[in-house]
């Protein structure tokens, strides 16, 4: 493995290196974000549970988080030209709320993104094992598939980032294609009983289960902020990152909402509620695809469910490896984490560490005989989703604090009011997630608290680390989270 280390320059701090400018375009970044959201996984695994939890109000389940995140994006993209490194949330929070909060947030981000990578690799293994069994009559151990998935993600993470973008683009295009075909067939055939416009009645937002279903649906947008993680690798980050962020959030909000509505059209409102409330809720989407399009589409969709989970795992692996890189480059974590590959320019140090995390957690699950879905998938998703939501809330507040000192030519609405409203909405989503965490984990209070505890603990550890650095080396402290790396 040929890699370039950071080395040390004059003075006490590490000499900066940068990720190679791979010329990532708006399209590439949108692929990374939407693939991380895993639309087919959401439609097959989350939407039926959202309908079961919130009834007809599920049609608003993606409108509300989408609106909150579009407000968030207003300030986030205004600040993005000032963040020219791979630190993303870490850098935003460090500049807006101070370096101790930035380092604390970075450690939370490491837990969250690594948890999501593990979660989705477990999902990939589970879905693929089931697909081999149901479609081909072949029993393949999920453990073997998990090992293969981990190796494939590591290879793509080690390669030039544009290769991963192409893989994600193909996987995403196919999963969207099968959903669009299904939705067209539903609408052309008229559904079960007409257009189901009742699901958009404004009063439904007051449904008793609406708050609970937001805990499920908010996770459908997790990963959109990854656009900022590729600041060093984008062709024109000042233009590409804002465009990709708005397009990704807007597309997900519209596509998810349209897709939920199509499910209600397909079954009829009463039929959808009845099916979602039954024992076969997990098969709701594919049963409808079989009915309206045919068994071939359902079978193809189940195969694409596997590639959807793999693509999302790759996207979160990339995000986690870039956090390791950013912290290693600045000497917060071992400098070996900040190594880059000489030829591909990829964060090879971060890739190795993230792959080791995948191998360790999945290996432990195999040794203990843990269920890949009920334990590894669900339990890993909880700190992942909650950690990223909390980081988004802190980032929104950081944007407000950053621009409160100087609007930098922006309107108060864009950089103060919109992100402040988003911060309130995101805090509400965090509170809902904590109070109803059992919806995500299907576990008891002891497990839920054990899953949550690392987040605040590591945040405090990061704060202490930053303060210790300030006490030992003021110049190094001043560089934390503010290091801009030009091309």
Structural overview:
This protein is mostly helical and 487 residues long. It has a single domain (17-479), classed as Amino acid/polyamine transporter I, CATH 1.20.1740.10. The protein has helices at residues 26-37, 39-54, 63-79, 89-97, 99-136, 142-158, 161-189, 210-217, 237-267, 269-276, 284-292, 295-329, 348-368, 372-404, 412-435, 438-441, 445-452, 454-472, 474-479; strands at residues 3-4, 340-341. The chain has a two-stranded antiparallel sheet with strand order 1-2. The two termini are 24 Å apart.
Question: Layout of helices and strands, plus pairs?
Answer:
Layout: E1 3-4, H1 26-37, H2 39-54, H3 63-79, H4 89-97, H5 99-136, H6 142-158, H7 161-189, H8 210-217, H9 237-267, H10 269-276, H11 284-292, H12 295-329, E2 340-341, H13 348-368, H14 372-404, H15 412-435, H16 438-441, H17 445-452, H18 454-472, H19 474-479
Antiparallel strand pairs: 1-2
Helix pairs in contact: 1-7, 1-9, 1-12, 2-8, 2-9, 2-10, 2-12, 3-9, 3-14, 3-15, 4-5, 4-14, 5-6, 5-12, 5-13, 5-14, 5-18, 6-12, 6-13, 7-9, 7-12, 8-15, 9-10, 11-12, 12-13, 14-15, 14-17
GO molecular function, one term: transmembrane transporter activity
Main location: membrane
Keywords: Cell membrane, Membrane, Transmembrane, Transmembrane helix
């Amino acid at each position: 493995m040929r890699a370039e280390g950071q080395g040390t320059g004059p003075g006490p701090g590490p000499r900066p290196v940068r990720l190679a400018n791979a010329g990532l375009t708006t399209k590439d970044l949108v692929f990374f974000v939407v693939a991380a959201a895993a639309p087919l996984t959401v439609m097959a695994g989350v939407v039926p549970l959202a309908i079961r939890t919130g009834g007809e109000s599920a049609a608003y389940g993606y409108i509300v988080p989408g609106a909150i995140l579009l407000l968030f994006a207003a300030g986030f993209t205004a600040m993005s030209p000032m963040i020219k490194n791979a630190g993303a949330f870490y850098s935003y929070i460090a500049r807006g709320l101070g370096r101790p909060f930035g380092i604390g947030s970075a450690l939370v981000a490491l837990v969250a993104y690594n948890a999501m990578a593990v979660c989705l690799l477990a999902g990939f293994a589970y879905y693929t094992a089931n697909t081999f069994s149901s479609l081909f009559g072949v029993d393949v151990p999920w453990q073997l598939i998990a090992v293969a998935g981990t190796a494939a993600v590591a290879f793509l993470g080690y390669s030039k980032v544009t290769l991963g973008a192409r893989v994600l683009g193909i996987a995403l295009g196919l999963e969207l294609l099968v959903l669009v075909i299904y939705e067209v067939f539903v609408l052309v055939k008229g559904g079960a009983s007409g257009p189901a416009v009742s699901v958009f009645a404004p009063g439904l937002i007051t449904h008793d289960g609406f708050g609970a279903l937001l805990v499920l649906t908010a996770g459908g947008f997790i990963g959109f902020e990854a656009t900022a993680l590729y600041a060093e690798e984008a062709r024109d980050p000042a233009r590409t990152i804002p465009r990709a962020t708005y397009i990704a959030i807007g597309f997900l909000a519209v596509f998810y909402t349209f897709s939920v509505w199509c499910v209600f059209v397909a079954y009829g409102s009463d039929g959808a509620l009845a099916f979602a409330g039954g024992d076969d809720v997990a098969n709701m989407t594919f049963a409808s695809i079989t009915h309206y399009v045919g068994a071939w589409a359902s079978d193809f969709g189940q195969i694409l469910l596997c590639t959807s989970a793999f693509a999302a795992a790759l996207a979160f692996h990339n995000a986690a490896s870039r956090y390791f890189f950013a912290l290693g480059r600045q000497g917060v974590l071992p400098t070996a984490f900040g190594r880059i590959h000489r030829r591909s320019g990829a964060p090879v140090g971060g890739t190795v560490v993230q792959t080791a995390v995948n191998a360790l957690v999945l290996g432990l699950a195999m040794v203990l005989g843990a269920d890949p879905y009920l334990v590894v998938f669900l339990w890993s998703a909880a700190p992942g989703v909650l950690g990223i939501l909390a980081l988004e809330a802190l980032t929104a507040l950081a944007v407000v604090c950053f621009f409160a000192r100087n609007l930098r030519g922006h309107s108060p609405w864009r950089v103060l009011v919109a992100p402040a409203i988003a911060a309130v909405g995101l805090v509400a989503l965090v509170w809902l997630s904590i109070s109803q965490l059992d919806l995500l984990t299907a576990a008891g209070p002891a497990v839920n608290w054990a899953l949550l505890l690392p987040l605040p603990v590591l945040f405090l550890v990061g704060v202490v680390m930053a303060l210790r650095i300030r006490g030992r080396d003021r110049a190094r402290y001043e560089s934390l989270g503010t290091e801009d790396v030009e091309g």
